[in-house]
Backbone:
């Protein structure tokens, strides 16, 4: 068994959350080592699939997120400048379409007003003229947020890895961590043939949280992403349709003329890593059945590409950001409940500050793991 020592922080799991943790730790001048069982960006976890939405107007589980959404936007804008050649953020705007009686409409309006973000309410007629290809019922309302943006996921992950290489972060990809152990003054990280030691560790395992034996409740929800030619479904803004009848579909335009229009829909999860990453014909038929009532063109459009993606949902949709049970030298970040990309820059900062025992002004009690014991 080899033994490698001398790191300030080990990051285990190199999805978007772990990458930001590594980035901020290195920015502080810390010696960082990063592990991933695969080579990011990969299609087995949650941080892949061309793009992600960042919106101000979104159903958050608590008002506590109000200042955090503003801060995370600022951080994304600064990343947009740092990684300028990437064109990281594409401002397309987003329209969320809900049933007219849905109480979330009022909540989203209040949220937007509190944030002082411009928005427009669209009735069925304007929605129909705006999205003539979609079947818009008479009983829906749209909330338009012109400032919403799409993040270029995979090019950004590649750029962060290149940045890490330039800044001497050893990336240990395709190296699975089998165990992490806290000692009074250091942490050991065990892989198949090497024991590493670091002063501290940040564990960001995404959907693999349950493999750590911590007994933290998490539900995995598999989403299927499909791409059709832009000519089949030309859109200029993102559209989220959430009709309270299990119809939850998101449409993403593709401004860079790559891959076409993206459609995301829920598919029931079959257990196990292999089945999560594979897509069956039944999955595609199930998704087509969901999309058809909203966009009948799905039956005629050629399928350019498809990928699964896993969401890790907590029981209350608040994240898990906490110390490892029994140790202040290890922190864990998981359960990002469909909003991990948006908050990743901020979460990465929190994780680093926590593990370095540096003060954090925000009240993060919402994210403590033991809050779940109090949920009935
Ligand atoms: C279809 C879809 C659409 C989404 N849309 C949005 C959106 O529009 N906006 C938004 O903000 N969020 C969105 N999300 C959610 C967001 O993508 C996730 O919250 C985020 O990517 C989670 O990142 P993560 O780093 O926690 O997990 P992951 O990206 O899964 O990373 C975890 C990493 O840990 C590694 N790992 C696990 N165990 C080990 C081990 N033992 N040893 C070594 N490595 C290990 C894995 O290989 C993996 O690379 C969406 C998610 C999906 C599935």
Residues:
């Amino acid at each position: 068994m080899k033994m490698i020592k001398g790191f300030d922080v080990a990051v285990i799991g190199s999805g978007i959350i772990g990458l930001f943790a590594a980035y901020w730790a290195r920015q502080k001048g810390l010696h960082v080592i990063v592990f991933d069982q695969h080579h990011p960006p990969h299609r087995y976890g949650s941080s892949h699939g061309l793009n992600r939405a960042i919106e101000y107007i979104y159903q958050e589980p608590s008002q506590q997120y109000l200042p955090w959404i503003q801060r995370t936007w600022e951080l994304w804008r600064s990343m947009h400048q740092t990684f300028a050649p990437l064109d990281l953020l594409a401002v397309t705007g987003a329209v969320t379409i809900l049933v007219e009686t849905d109480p979330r409409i009022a909540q989203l309006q209040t949220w937007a007003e509190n944030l002082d973000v411009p928005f427009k309410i669209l009735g069925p007629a304007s929605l129909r003229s705006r999205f003539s290809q979609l079947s818009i019922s008479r009983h829906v309302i749209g909330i338009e947020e012109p400032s919403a943006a799409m993040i270029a996921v995979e090019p950004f992950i590649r750029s962060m890895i290149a940045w890490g290489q330039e800044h001497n972060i050893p990336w240990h990809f395709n190296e699975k961590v089998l165990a992490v152990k806290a000692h009074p003054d250091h942490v050991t990280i065990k892989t198949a043939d090497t024991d590493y030691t670091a002063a501290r560790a940040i564990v960001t395992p995404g959907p693999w949280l349950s493999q750590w034996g911590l007994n933290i409740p998490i539900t995995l929800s598999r989403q299927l992403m499909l791409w059709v030619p832009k000519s089949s479904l030309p859109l200029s803004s993102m559209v989220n349709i959430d009709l309270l009848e299990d119809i939850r579909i998101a449409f993403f335009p593709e401004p860079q003329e790559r891959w076409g229009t993206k459609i995301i829909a829920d598919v029931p999860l079959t257990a196990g890593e292999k089945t999560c990453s594979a897509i069956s014909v039944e999955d595609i038929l199930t998704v087509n059945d969901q999309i058809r009532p909203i966009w009948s063109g799905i039956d005629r459009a050629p399928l350019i590409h498809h990928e699964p993606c896993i969401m890790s949902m907590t029981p209350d949709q608040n994240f898990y950001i906490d110390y490892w049970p029994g140790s202040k030298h290890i922190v864990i970040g998981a359960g990002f409940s469909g909003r991990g990309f948006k908050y990743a820059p901020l979460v990465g900062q929190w994780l680093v500050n926590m593990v370095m025992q540096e003060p954090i002004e925000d009240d993060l009690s919402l994210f403590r793991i033991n809050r779940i014991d109090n949920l009935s």
